[in-house]
Amino acid sequence: MCRQFGVGPPTFDHLPKERGSLGEVANEAESAAVRTDKSDIKREDGENMKKRIFMQESEATAFLKRRGRRSTKSKDEVNAENRQRLAADERRREYYEEQRNEFENYVEEERDEQQERNREKTEQWREYHYDGLYPSYQYNRHHI
Questions:
Q1: Percent of the chain whose predicted confidence (pLDDT) is above 70
Q2: Which stretches does the entry tag as region Disordered (predicted)?
Q3: Is it the case that residue 120 has pLDDT exceeding 70?
């Protein structure tokens, strides 16, 4: 294994060791807290807030691991995933429809401009080559 050429799995030996990493904290903690707003927390309501925010380790474990990898999903879970998938499909469909409409408008404008330039050039050519007869003399000749 040659580290100087980037061969082999990465190692993090060169990084300083941190105390209190997330893994250590998770192993030592019995519960977790989420702070909602700084103005909500007061010293006299400290115990009430702890009761509202903290949950037991068993509840947290059950919340984070609702089911094993091989167990079947609940109907609510399947329905939620399907709703998310359908919403993503709808957003994707709307995005591509909008892109297609913008491109079609661009192409239509370009085509109109090209036709206008072509019409102007044709009119200029006809004015320059007009011989006073309509239809012009060139197209009225009788071929023998």
A1: 51
A2: 24-49, 63-124
A3: yes
Q: Is a pLDDT exceeding 80 seen at residue 119?
A: yes
Name the residue ranges covered by the structural domains of the chain. Answer: 75-144
Over residues 38-59, the pLDDT tens digits come to 555 555 566 666 666 777 777 7
Using alpha carbons, select from 59, 22, 47, 52 the residue that is nearest to residue 36: 52
